[in-house]
Amino acid sequence: MGIQLEASDIDKAHQLETGNVTINGKSVTPPYFENSMVIQKVGNYILLYGYEDITIRWDGHNGVYVHLPPAKRNSTCGLCGNFNGIPDDDLKTPDGRITTSIARFGNSWSRPDVNEQCRNIPEREVQSPCSNKSEAEMNKIRGKCQVLNDHPFTLCYGSVNPQGFIEMCVQDVCSLNSTSDPDSICDSLTQYERACAKAGIAVMWRKKGLCPVKCENGMVYEPCGSACPSTCADHGKSKFRCQNQCVDGCHCPMGTVLQNGRCYKLEECPCEHNKIWHKALARIPVDCND
């Protein structure tokens, strides 16, 4: 699965895929800067921002988030809706018809010319993955998802109702057909964590045995870190306008900045000379005849 950005005034196709970014078919390594556009790896995401104040976040798995400025209201269409503040008319097909069938809606916007693996799905009633479970199995599954009723998730109840996420969790565990796999509930808990972060509440819930995230290179896990972290290259002051949003994942702790996937104190930042990175205070021999 991947994301491709095309626009009439952009002369390059930007493709975001799991662990890979390509520009017109050529692989590039984030951070990538092009005019006002930035592609960056932050936390769990690849971010693309700067084009007409649009931000796209892709977690490389099952989460795609598009942030549009108010000027784009009533001017969009497709799988993300028309951005008019009325959710009841979001399932609109390209010919302007509103449908109640998720399959018909999705099929109408498929792009086999972009990805031949993007095939239409049958337009029949979708059967719940839990429909063939016994009552005893369902009790185990519901019990597994009750973690959303415990602390610290309860800190977010006043802002985000957890019921829909509990139901999502039950469906996920049924689909994976495993009550013994501890990771079967992680996607649903992560989605609730992100909804809480959007509401301004950071829920620190991950721990050993419950969807842990291992951070390396001096990073620490944050449910709501900056979408535009400071780097050694910008001397701790990002020169790009950052949308007011946060992203979950591994981030540099306070007092450090990011560079080449590692965290540094600003005074210990490496420096670049002739496209080669050197340690702070390193001596670089220079041929004065060059």
Automatic annotation (TrEMBL):
InterPro entries: Mucin_vWF_Thrombospondin_sf, Ser_inhib-like_sf, TIL_dom, VWF/SSPO/ZAN-like_Cys-rich_dom, VWF_type-D
SMART domains in the record: C8
Sorted UniProt keywords: Disulfide bond, Glycoprotein
Identification of the protein by name: Uncharacterized protein
Record has RNA-binding as a keyword: no
Pfam families assigned to the protein according to its UniProt record, in alphabetical order: C8, TIL, VWD
